[in-house]
Design a protein that fits this description.
Number of domains: 1
Radius of gyration: 17 Å
Transmembrane segments: 25-44, 50-71, 92-114, 120-141, 162-183
Keywords: Cell membrane, Membrane, Transmembrane, Transmembrane helix
Family: Belongs to the UPF0056 (MarC) family.
Shape: globular
Structural class: mainly alpha
Oligomer: single chain
Helix content: over 70%
Number of helices: 9
Strand content: under 5%
Subcellular location: Cell membrane
Distance between the termini: 26 Å
Protein name: UPF0056 membrane protein
Length: 189
């Protein structure tokens, strides 16, 4: 979760929303991300085992989703599922809540931190840190409207396209890391 880096992405994805809708999207995306990460923090390995997928498979899926989001940010004029979701106001759930905020990296990091926690106090510390991180992310998106009023639409469009490239690169990085683990361990799935 990147509170500062998500602000321009948030602005790009909510460009068709008014200030009130943007605040609602910020709130909803934060809640969705919190629920997803808390679920995986407390029972993530069991969830993955139940459906028979590895953490690397989750990482590949997240990487592919980020590639798609990056492409759609680079090509905002095309008719796409992201554009339709943005116009309909559902962008808070997907892609903001997940996979941008509650992506494979945040999920895996939280799962590992919980697994390394030795006692209840350490577990509560990890969960408390997660709450603080979510609060900071929410505040960043909540006050992104201030940034949107300072920038012209063409500047937001330029930033969204540059960030589309970066989001796509993050997706490629997630894919590469998962494939590297699969090759190293000799396991594919």
């Amino acid at each position: 979760m990147d509170p500062i880096g998500n602000v321009p992405i948030f602005l790009a994805l909510t460009r068709f929303q008014d200030d009130r809708s943007r605040r609602r999207s910020a709130r909803l995306a934060t809640v969705v991300a919190g629920v997803v990460i808390f679920l995986f923090a407390l029972g993530g390995q069991q969830i993955l085992n139940l459906v028979g997928i590895s953490l690397e498979s989750l990482q590949v899926a997240g990487g592919l989703l980020l590639l798609l989001i990056g492409y759609e940010l680079l090509n905002p004029t095309g008719s796409s599922s992201l554009t339709t979701a943005t116009e309909a106001g559902n962008v808070a759930l997907v892609p903001l809540g997940t996979p941008l905020l509650a992506g494979p990296g945040a999920i895996a990091a939280t799962m590992l931190a919980i697994a390394d926690a030795d006692d209840v106090g350490a577990t509560l510390s990890v969960l408390g840190a997660l709450v603080v991180a979510l609060a900071v992310v929410y505040l960043g998106m909540r006050f992104a409207t201030v940034v949107s009023h300072l920038l012209r639409p063409s500047a937001i469009d330029l930033v969204s396209r540059v960030l589309g490239l970066l989001v796509a690169a993050i997706g490629v990085q997630l894919l590469a890391e998962a494939i590297e683990i699969w090759v190293r361990d000799g396991v594919a799935g």
